[in-house]
Amino acid sequence: MSSITDLIRKEIENLSTDATRTNVGTITTLADGVAKVEGLSKVMFNEMVEFPNNILGIALNLEEDSVGCVLLGDTSSLKEGDEVRTTGKLLSVPVGKALLGRVVDAVGRPIDDKGTIDSDQSSPVEKIAPGIIPRKSVDQPLQTGIMAVDSMVPIGRGQRELIIGDRSTGKTTIAIDTIINQAKINKQGEKSGDPNFRAVYCIYVAVGQKNSNVARTIKILEEAGALEYVIIVSAPAADNPANQYLAPYSGCAMGEWFMENGMDALIVYDDLSKHAVAYRQISLILKRPSGREAYPGDVFYLHSRLLERSARLNENSGNGSLTALPIIETQMGDVSGYIPTNVISITDGQIFLETDLFNKGIRPAVSVGLSVSRVGSAAQIKAYKKVAGKVKLELAQFRELAAFSQFESDLDASTKARLDRGARIVEMFKQGAYSPIPVEVQSAIMWGMQNDFFDSISAQDIQRAVESLKEYLSAQGKDVCDEIYNSGKLEDSTVQNLRVAFEDWKRTFA
Amino acid sequence: MTSSSKHKKLAKSLLQFSLNEEGHIVDSKIEEILSSLRSSNPSGLKSLLRFFYTEVRRYEYTYHAIAEIGCKDEPNITNSIVKKLESAIGKNIKLTVIENPQIISGCRVRLKDDVYEDSLQSRLQNLEKSFH
Lengths: 510, 132
Prior knowledge:
CATH superfamily of the largest domain in chain A: P-loop containing nucleotide triphosphate hydrolases
Oligomer: heterodimer
Radius of gyration of chain A: 26 Å
Number of domains of chain A: 3
CATH class of the largest domain in chain A: Alpha Beta
Number of helices of chain B: 5
């Protein structure tokens, strides 16, 4: 007991005797997580303000005689006339490796019942994106483990690749697959002890998702052993719009920490359509003028300032990177909507997922014609570049020819060959969820397709053949895969070994 | 000049008439102004009165400080607070002192939207925060 009183006495003695000066205001209106405050004449834009009962808010609207604040937390205890204080601080979230494996809310507080987060560093949620000087062009691949993506729309470290499509077309699955693949590569790299290996840490930001979906995602990552490399920032649909608005910026601040400290990180924003809706809600309550589809005028800036923070830094700036995979949900496949076109123009390419393909069982339902990566083959290893160069064109030709061939009964030999090849490529690209394929295995399979090893197999059997080939390459063909993995190239000797392996496999495959 | 800007200008002049030599608003002067306005009934009286109300409120808010003290009001405390505030603001300040036992000891002065505080209550609150 005496030690406690001593402690309190010491604390009182240590307190400074100077009077403090605080800028205060009074709540005049309070609705839907937004408060109008009279006073706060010295508040800064985006400054954190303190409401009674330790509730925090952010000053978003600085008007002549009032301040519009969004509230973060339970607002039920607040009432008109309550005092609000400035804090002099911008909203910050904890950052660092201590957050890996944890689920946090929009302001970085743990919500996974795993105790407090031991992070002594924090970073402001809003930050200016890196300028031109510290940047470098994207040249290192970020393997998603999805053949259709890695071969046709390769993603590089520091790139921003949009995943876009209607509801239930597999957008989140592509993002989760990518995260799982990073975890697999990280484990493999750490096991190899290669000093040049660069792990990719992941941040998954769930905005406006159902809590059940977030829980399922966490379970999938846990089961795949990927959670230890992932930070999950959750602002579910039940959360107030202010938290949904903030979550992507908080996740970005956490990802930036890795980039600024010379590491690589991947951030998934799932999804920015709901983020825009949350921002629209806040803006309308703040009485900001609304524009197209009732979104405020700065909805482009909302996403551009977020996505510009993903970058590849040069050697002088630590050589880190932050890759972004924003997700956008379209309505009835309409990519010309307001938010989709905005985000398409901000990002360095998009993976468009088609509902028709998905319903036909072609999964991942990547649309060849509408998907593009502006970084292109610069983000592929040499071996992969060599075998995947023609595949996009072949598949696009196949889709076009397939449409026309419906009306033709007699087809010439070359058209028929193209159609057959296309049908096999489509089958080859079919891939189950949460089962990413290593790049060396992908290269080998693609090599086999380019060198006609699948031509004698009917299109219906291609998937079975690919599965059998994957098994073969992980056992008897492991050496040739290791060769590709270690050198990253398809040298003459590797090609020779691949040919031998394929001939051997074909003998076993019936 | 539009009628609203005319009324705004007039309201500012009326505010100046409401002040005494020390720069404080005098209630009797305001009552005098209101009764003369009522009797003359100029056009747009409602708008003029609204602007006058805003001006008076703004002036009161800017130059009227409210001090909450934990102990009984003592003239030397009040004077020292007024002096310090006037030297900081550079204008005459009207001070209203309220006794607030929750403060326990020390004082809390609010002028405009600034709060100057050195009270036992705030120190205990800071102490509580440091334990979390």
